[in-house]
Amino acid sequence: MDHIYDVKDYDYELPEELIAQDPLEDRTSSRLMVLNKQSGEVSHHHFYDIKQYLKPGDCLVLNNTKVIPARLYGVKEDTGAAIEILLLKREEDAIWECLVRPGKKCRVGAKISFGDGLLHGEIIDVLADGNRKIQFSYEGIFEEILDQLGEMPLPPYITHKLQDKNRYQTVYAKYDGSAAAPTAGLHFTKELLQEVRDMGVRIAEVTLHVGLGTFRPVKVDNILEHHMHSEYYQISQEACDIINETRANGGRVISVGTTSTRTLESVANAILGNAKGLVNSDADVKPAEYIQVGDKQYVKLTPQTGWTEIFIYPGYEFQVIDGLITNFHLPESTLIMLVSALAGREHVLAAYAKAVEEKYRFFSFGDAMFIEP
User: Fold this and answer.
1) Using CA atoms, how far apart are residues 266 and 57, in angstroms rounded to an integer?
2) Do 200 and 347 sit in the same domain of this protein?
3) Does the pTM exceed 0.85?
């Protein structure tokens, strides 16, 4: 087996006390490690220093998805047994695919009551992976009831209770749909984004609704056998124009987070007619157009929506992004593999070892890394 396909090659030692349990009061005061993807050199800063690494004419791409308070606690109507559910994916207006615990008690036909009857759910299907489809019934607006009853679905490695729901939400979150936050964006404040704009950096927004697959470790020895869960994405004409103009003018495209990266790369693959990771896409099947910059050709992005299972690991050739702002990811996760595809596995693991040595804070509420082009 080629060594970069062995899941153990993406492992590293992480003391448990370095897993950030609470967000910092000031979003921008997180630490920032800058990793040069060519040389592997690292330097240490604070997140507010990111402006030093951006240039007029660059473009930052943000994922404007909004985390929904997707964790609900209820009781089985016939026995009173406690049931916990996590909303994963909206199938239809009142039908959701959900993770249910304990699953054994919830066969088809089981009825669950939430919030003293404010919301009712009935299991209508059990899927092959054990997830359930639940049909909800309620009076009023589902989102308002969810806001009242639901909790933010924090990752399993965060054991502290979140005091302020907004701290697991980016300041630019717009569209409901995620079971997890695009955490690289948590470091930005509205003020910092305005300062970045004032420098002449353009900002484009895409949407990818983050699924729970984000937290799942890779459980196969050969990473090529890992199956990603599908996530919904979309990119508008406006975002395409900003990115295409940035490219044509010689600027750099810098993705904020692995979810923005996966969106952009899925869009490019769809346009190129490459099925990599695409479950479906409404991309126009006209021949791809290109933007020529010096001796390099870049695919011209066009608006689309779709579902993607794109899995990016070393050997992948990036079509859109030059640089990446991201957090520090779990050992043996698909996210550390994506980062390794961009910056080189050895560079990334050496940088992570340095981060452990320097006591950086890891994972969702932790510190940030900028992989500079």
Assistant:
1) 24
2) yes
3) yes
